[in-house]
Amino acid sequence: xxxxxxxxxxxxxxxxxxxxxxxxxxxxxxxxxxxxxxxxxxxxxxxxxxxxxxxxxxxxxxxxxxxxxxxxxxxxxxxxxxxxxxxxxxxxxxxxxxxxxxxxxxxxxxxxxxxxxxxxxxxxxxxxxxxxxxxxxxxxxxxxxxxxxxxxxxxxxxxxxxxxxxxxxxxxxxxxxxxxxxxxxxxxxxxxxxxxxxxxxxxxxxxxxxxxxxxxxxxxxxxxxxxxxxxxxxxxxxxxxxxxxxxxxxxxxxxxxxxxxxxxxxxxxxxxxxxxxxxxxxxxxxxxxxxxxxxxxxx
Amino acid sequence: xxxxxxxxxxxxxxxxxxxxxxxxxxxxxxxxxxxxxxxxxxxxxxxxxxxxxxxxxxxxxxxxxxxxxxxxxxxxxxxxxxxxxxxxxxxxxxxxxxxxxxxxxxxxxxxxxxxxxxxxxxxxxxxxxxxxxxxxxxxxxxxxxxxxxxxxxxxxxxxxxxxxxxxxxxxxxxxxxxxxxxxxxxxxxxxxxxxxxxxxxxxxxxxxxxxxxxxxxxxxxxxxxxxxxxxxxxxxxxxxxxxxxxxxxxxxxxxxxxxxxxxxxxxxxxxxxxxxxxxxxxxxxxxxxxxxxxxxxxxxxxxxxxxxxxxxxxxxxxxxxxxxxxxxxxxxxxxxxxxxxxxxxxxxxxxxxxxxxxxxxxxxxxxxxxxxxxxxxxxxxxxxxxxxxxxxxxx
Lengths: 299, 395
Known about the structure:
The complex is a heterodimer.
Chain A: H1 2-23, H2 28-42, H3 44-70, H4 75-85, H5 91-116, H6 121-130, H7 133-139, H8 141-144, E1 150-151, E2 154-155, H9 164-180, H10 198-217, H11 223-257, H12 268-273, H13 283-298
Antiparallel strand pairs in A: 1-2
Chain B: H1 7-35, E1 46-49, E2 54-58, E3 63-67, E4 72-77, E5 92-94, E6 97-101, E7 105-106, E8 114-115, E9 117-122, E10 134-135, E11 147-149, E12 152-156, E13 161-166, E14 178-179, E15 189-191, E16 194-198, E17 203-208, E18 214-219, E19 229-231, E20 234-239, E21 243-248, E22 254-259, E23 269-271, E24 274-278, E25 283-288, E26 294-299, E27 310-312, E28 315-320, E29 333-339, E30 345-351, E31 360-362, E32 365-369, E33 375-381, E34 386-391
Antiparallel strand pairs in B: 1-2, 2-3, 3-4, 5-6, 6-9, 7-8, 9-10, 11-12, 12-13, 13-14, 15-16, 16-17, 17-18, 19-20, 20-21, 21-22, 23-24, 24-25, 25-26, 27-28, 28-29, 29-30, 31-32, 32-33, 33-34
């Protein structure tokens, strides 16, 4: 599997960075920036799908919860109701896919940066096995290496000693996460509506946990990798903002046409059949049970 | 799994989940594969020998002293329970002292900085000398061997610094370290109050040994990863630009360059008016020390070579890091001997793993260090007979 890893991830990344570095005036930070853009473009369809799905699911949470509560003993009916509102439970897994795909990229990029910056003689020697012959003849690798490791106050192969990059990683990821989460609706008195939806609570905590986690990681990452994070998050912020705006426009357009899908509020059928005592029993079942009670009382 | 009367829906959900599970498994395997393999903080062993038949090896977890004749470990450093930083820089042994640096340990949970240390030990028993180690002298690994001249220790670091320490007090001897534009991996050379520093920034620097000020710098077009070799008026270095260079020690002017066929990783070797050097693809060159004119050229077949050649009794010994065409994980190494006068290959002996480290000669034995799980050192006679091994310490 490690050979497959080298073949599919590490070697292509190393060579891509080498080529970009060479073509962009021997500027490694610029090479990382362009590389980040390329990676985001490649993963754009998946990211967009995940973002839209995530936003839509957030909005559907009240309906989903109501259906889960009502039909918890009737999975078949639950599935049917989910289908009606356009919710697919397996999409939750799909939502994790972009993040999982990012991991090999991150690890590959970390290794590629270490190798190209020549952190140790061994890592620099590894390049001889990783650089493609055609890249070598194009770029003249032996004279290009190792890549200069200084950028402003940073040594690109070492963590930022002044904590600037970890703070930026946290901040940009936090903003990016916020854009993925719809804001809570406000009550009449201006306070935010209390939301006892556990999914919502989890999402809210993720907004802080993930950025804190990555900010902490970047304390020990090479600066070059932290720069990748920051640039990737900035692109994600722009992407998230555009996605939100587009979805809002789509909703408005659909509302104007009267084609608004049943993605808001509790389904009418679920509302109608929710019992007045909140027991979750259907009205028909309720009628039967009250009839039984009256009969037993007569006896 | 949700049960539906509609078997089609059930199957679709099952198929979808299986597909996703498969994707996750593949990704997880990739991630695990990525996490395996060599870490960023490792390298090949560094080795030195004294004139008493003792070899000093920095092989990662420790620095050990091995008596070659008795094949016994004399001491190991560190010998306490405290986890030490990795050691790979070749130790320097001068006047009963062993000096080396480490690759650094983490500065703490929330600290981005590493704690890099330099050590001075007694060569007899491996105990730390007074006032040592010195820490926080640099921010990145010590890859280069130290240069010890009298009471001064000169050392380069991977964060582009060259610094000087008083060998007795362990205090900085310069007002501030010299800063190059890239890492220092090679050992400096010294003559008449001047140290000659090779750098990965494609320059060789001549610094005033008393205060670290620059006397001259000379650009050699390619990184210099190994030591500078000084003989009389000339400084010899190997460069990644596929040349060996001879620089005027007074001015830094390039007196000659001898072309190779690949990057010259290991330092040149000066012996009796001839300079020998080997390029990364195993091509061996002997050129006149004054003129750079080619005397002979030979080749260590199917070999990567990163080490400096060594000389003994009319023979050149070259450590091979293996066949470039072989799978890196399955490569073997070799020690190859050439006639120093004619360049004819005399013999070649295989080793279990690639040999990156420059061999050392002690007595009538050539010692090589390999990254084998079983053996750390292999001993060869000058005739190519394998005469012993030293096992890799288990602790």
